[in-house]
Design goal:
Blueprint lengths: L13 H11 L8 E2 L2 H7 L13 E3 L4 H14 L3 E4 L16 E4 L6 E5 L4 E4 L5 H10 L16 H6 L7 H4 L6 E8 L4 E4 L13 H4 L7 E9 L7 E8 L2 H14 L4 E6 H9 L12 E8 L3 H16 L5 E4 L3 H12 L1 H5 L5 E6 L5 H15 L4 E7 L4 E7 L6 H10 L1 H10 L24 H14 L14
Parallel strand pairs: 2-4, 3-4
Antiparallel strand pairs: 1-2, 5-6, 6-9, 7-8, 7-9, 10-12, 10-13, 11-12, 11-15, 14-16, 15-16
Helix pairs in contact: 8-10, 8-13, 13-15
Length: 477
């Protein structure tokens, strides 16, 4: 694949920025083209703090036509484009460090064409996840993809990273809720994928190529999202677990008796963090791990079944203590023990790993990785949490006070090879839901074969022949 990136201006100066801004202003509203330092730094990054931010300009298109014109301009000028949504990513996928134009969809944020029969709604790319959730609730429906950054992440970004979150065990990933989408490819062509059909066996479903593509194939400019019936009367259990292996026994015991909407876990180190920030412990007993289970109370029998399984798990020694929510507010407080962990870790500049295996392998997988990291960094605090019901673990290593960020990240990266060798041995993924971006790019071989990568590069060449779409992300261009 030709590397247009080698032709990009990597150190854009003020004169170049002003020249490009003037050209962009010919087809995008001039006040929606920004080259001031605050905009460049604020929109040229995501939540990763590992990379220099150095975009050429930030643009805020308002129409699909403007996006098409932008792509054609960038192609002619050999300038790379980096899509920017809510910038909540953790893989460096939205980082602009090589003089790219950042494409922000903040002003393409409307919903339209709600169809109550099909239970679909058309979303522009900048629609906030919570905005869609709130709209669904107003229609007495439900959009089930949910995670901590729902208040700022955007729909196109969710699709581009195939976001998962806390309800995957019941509702699946973002790709499962996309009825159709419109995309502007690297040539500026607008393509309409699937046209919202439920059944459509006419060749390749190109829609799914863009779920998880991280903006490397084209820019998502519209998505038709499916909605569903809301869950009824959700209850939450938090259980104290003495050892990791018991968690899978608990999952099996509950799933054998009742459907679950969530099955999450977190470590005692995580519980200490959230309780230090004002939350109450779920119960007095301290245990190495905690399981959070959510289920629907569709009848009195559901509550009785949950208590029966809970008591059975206690009898087996899999659970030491536990609590069940008695109100909606108590359920929210119990969820906060798990959902607030990211925010509570943030002041410690954590080094994050987002990994997965098949659900049944989680206990051994976690123990192997925990042993390697604990041995390498006995003085570092490890905080585990994750969507353990679908095999997804989040490992967070907290930076010690007084240690420089560069030294800390260097130490953490030194053990990556060992961690990812374990992932490879378990035939797992080095990125369960955060994406590859820049952070995991150089480790993709631990999950994907050379043949896989070659095929992906070939697909990119078809959609983006000049390599202007987020080059250098996922794999080396």
């Amino acid at each position: 694949m030709s590397n247009v990136a080698s032709d990009f201006i990597t150190e854009p100066n003020d004169e170049r920025r002003q020249q490009i801004a003037k050209q962009l202003g010919e087809f995008i509203d001039p006040d929606k083209v920004r080259i001031d330092e605050e905009s460049l730094l604020g929109h040229g990054c995501d939540w990763t703090k590992l990379y220099k931010v150095n975009p050429l300009a930030i643009v805020f298109p308002k129409t699909v036509e403007q996006v098409q014109q932008l792509v054609k301009f960038a192609r002619a000028e050999k300038i790379a484009l980096v899509p920017s949504g809510g910038r909540t990513g953790l893989s460096g996928g939205a980082v602009a460090s090589q003089g790219e134009i950042v494409v922000s969809f903040d002003y393409m944020n409307q919903m339209s064409d709600f169809n109550p029969v099909d239970r679909t709604v058309v979303c522009q790319p900048g629609v906030i996840t919570q905005q869609l959730q709130d709209f669904a609730e107003e229609q007495c429906l439900y959009y089930p993809v949910d995670f901590a950054s729902a208040g700022s992440s955007q729909i196109a970004g969710n699709i581009a990273t195939n976001a998962g979150g806390i309800k995957v065990i019941k509702y699946g990933m973002t790709r499962d809720w996309v009825a159709g989408m419109k995309v502007v490819t690297g040539t500026g062509e607008l393509i309409d994928l699937n046209k919202n059909l439920l059944k459509n066996n006419t060749g390749y479903d190109l829609r799914h190529l863009f779920a998880g593509s991280e903006g490397t194939l084209g820019l998502i400019v519209e998505a038709t999202m499916r909605l569903t019936q809301p869950p009824k009367d959700l209850s939450v259990l938090v259980l104290g677990v003495p050892e990791m292996a018991a968690i899978m026994e608990i999952l099996r015991a509950f799933q054998n008796r009742m459907p679950l909407t969530a099955f999450e876990f977190f470590s005692e180190s995580g519980c200490k963090l959230t309780t230090a920030h004002g939350l109450q412990r779920p119960f007095e007993t301290e245990t190495p791990f905690y399981v959070l289970i959510e289920y629907e109370n569709q009848s009195e029998q559901d509550a009785e079944t949950a208590m029966e399984v809970f008591e059975y798990c206690m009898e087996q020694g899999w659970v030491v203590d536990g609590v069940i929510s008695q109100s909606e507010s108590q359920a929210e407080n119990l969820w906060a023990l798990r959902e607030n962990l990211g925010e509570c870790c943030a002041p410690f500049t954590p080094y994050k790993n987002d990994i997965s295996v098949t659900t049944s392998q989680v206990p051994g997988f976690l123990e192997d990785i925990d042993a390697v990291v604990s041995q390498a960094y006995p003085d570092f605090t490890l905080v585990w949490w994750g969507h353990i019901g679908d095999g997804n673990l989040h490992l967070n290593i907290l930076k010690p006070e007084g240690m420089e960020k560069e030294e800390f990240f260097s130490k953490c990266q030194a053990v990556n090879k060992q961690v990812f060798e374990i992932v490879e041995r378990y035939q797992g993924s080095i990125s369960a839901e955060h994406g590859v971006g820049l952070v995991k790019r150089d480790y993709i071989q631990y999950t994907r074969s050379d043949a896989d990568v070659a095929l992906m590069q070939g697909i990119k060449k078809v959609f983006d022949p000049d390599n202007i779409m987020n080059p250098g992300k996922i794999f080396q261009s």
